[in-house]
Every structure is written in C-alpha cells, then in structure tokens.
Amino acid sequence: MTGMAAMIENPADVWTAHAQLVANAASRSGLAWHVTHCVGQTDRHALRWLDECDFETYYPYVWEMKNVPQRELTQSQRNSPLPIRRPRKTALFPRYAFVRFDMGKSGWREIFRFSGVAGMICAGQLPIAVPDEWIEAMRAQEVDGIVPGKIPAKKVLSFQAGDTARVIEGPFTGFNVVVDSDLEVNIEDLDSGMRIRVLVSMLGQMVKTHLEIAQLESV
To answer: pTM of the entire structure?
Structure first.
C-alpha cells in the first residue's frame, strides 16, 4: 500500500479524483470517511476500541465458500469424494477499515495508536476522504450486513497473474482489476464460486482483495 498506483481507466479513478479534491477540506474540519490500516492484534480488536471511543466504522464482509475442517464432518461426509464446503463470513479488505471522524478535532491520533491503527491512505501527504456515496453504495449491496456471494450460472473464465479483468457483478462492478495470483486448478475442478486474489485501484492505491471468478470477465 505504498506509493501511488498507476492510473487505470475505470470508475475508481473518478472517485479517486473526487476524493483528492475534498481531501484538503476534510483535513481541516468536518466528518469524513477515511481508510485506516489496522496493525494491532486483530482487525476486530481495533474496531472494538474505535467503537468504544465513539468512532463510526465500516468493515465490509463477504460470504466466501471454504472447505469444512475434517473434525466438523460426519463419517459419510468424510467418505465423500467431493470436498464439503460452507459459506463463511470473510473481510472484504483484511487489515483495513473505513473510519468516519473529524480530523479537525484533537485526540484521534492518540486513540488510533491505542486502538492499533497506524496510518491512513493518503494523496499528496493528506489523508484521502472517501465520498459518502461510495460507502452508501457498498452498504446497499449487503444483505443482513454481508455482501452476498450468490452468482448466477455463467461461463467461467480462467485468468493468469498480471491479466486485466473487469468486474461485472458485486460492489466493484465496473472496476478494472489486475489478477494477482494464478488460478491453479484443473479445468474439471473449476467452480464459478472459486475466488482469486486481485488488485483494485481504490482511492489512488492498489488494494488486494479476493473476488469470485464468475464476477470477472476478460478485457
């Protein structure tokens, strides 16, 4: 998360430009959302202390299909030739949290240090203010507090590290992303719900996250 990302022609750049325009005003006074880096024991630990100190936070989750541990399977499930998978709640941006606060008021630096927060995403040495509309759009995708992972049946494409893809479904619809890891799986084992790591240009920085391959298309 160091250095500015190269420009990518997608809606994220529009948001980045808007965020940079409001960064100066937000740094002086007024409530605004910022992207903070959690470095404490756990993200949950940082969020709990921020909430205790009356900071509004947003930490988006998604459903991710994961293999069930052997100890949780029945004998018949253990004998199954297919892996048993269940949806589990997973952070969309591990180690990063959106925090809404007034930078013009004193005390937030001390609270951040105590909570396990170290730094914010910046542009030109100033913390970037995330537009309220961006947070609202993300929250609008949620069902019971979690971004759903239900994907309609469709042709699934395979991507390689370094490829550029377009997000066609979910909270990042319309974004161009860079595939950050190879999809190491045989064709017969390919599943539309399988997730791969990608780099998203968000607010002037390249952020790592995981998306289902059915949410992507080649460009």
So the answer is: 0.56
